[in-house]
Write a structure and sequence with these properties.
With 188 residues, this protein is α+β, with helices and mostly antiparallel strands. Helix content is 19%, strand content 40%. A hairpin with a 6-residue loop joins strand 4 and strand 5. The chain is elongated and about 55 Å long.
Length: 188
């Protein structure tokens, strides 16, 4: 008889586990690139750098998350783990930049600073940014999240191809894992 009392208790505990805590973290990498035109006879001051791939970032459609059966309601946290910039052609040097700030925005939410850097040493092709530790979950589950830049810089001597890479940690709830398991139940 005690065995029969334990079954409802175990089912209730399993149901409660599917209602809350974080199950695991999935790292999502996004990237974009742009070419910054070299200077002409007139020195050009840059105030923005457009990265085509960052204008509309939709983490909820990321293949890794979809492969895990994760829906927007299953995301419990979103944090930027790293942001770096790399010069991949041209002078292979980011010293033409004086400062750069990265902002996240989404419809109905305030634009927020997520990363910045004001040191671009001469001769360095790759520079990591300082992170602000902003929780991006509301931005990530909105209809679209965008990253924009604010830059203080002089145009480089030559056309320079620059790649931006962001690594994002997505915390997924147990509820998402439970939904995934239900959807893949073979009945065995």
């Amino acid at each position: 008889m005690d065995r029969y009392r334990a079954v409802p208790l175990l089912l209730a505990m399993g149901w409660m586990a599917c209602k809350g805590s974080t199950l695991k973290h999935i790292e999502v990498e996004e990237g974009a690139s742009t070419t910054i035109e070299g200077s002409s006879l007139l020195d050009e001051v840059l105030d923005t750098v457009g990265f085509d791939g960052f204008t509309e970032v939709d983490i909820t459609t990321n293949q890794e998350l979809q492969n895990q059966g994760v829906a927007p309601g299953d995301i419990s946290s979103v944090a930027m783990l790293s942001f770096e910039l790399e010069a991949t052609s041209g002078d292979l040097d980011l010293a033409f930049l004086e400062s750069m700030s990265i902002y996240a925005s989404a419809p109905g939410l305030d634009t927020v600073l997520v990363a910045s850097q004001d040191e671009f040493p001469e001769g360095q092709a790759v520079v990591g940014f300082e992170l602000e530790g902003v929780d991006l979950v509301d931005y990530a589950v909105s209809e679209s999240m965008s990253f924009t830049t604010e830059v203080t810089a002089e145009a480089p001597e030559d056309d320079t191809r620059v790649e931006a890479r962001v690594l994002i940690d997505v915390g997924v709830t147990v509820q998402g894992a439970c939904a995934y398991l239900k959807g893949h139940d073979t009945g065995a």
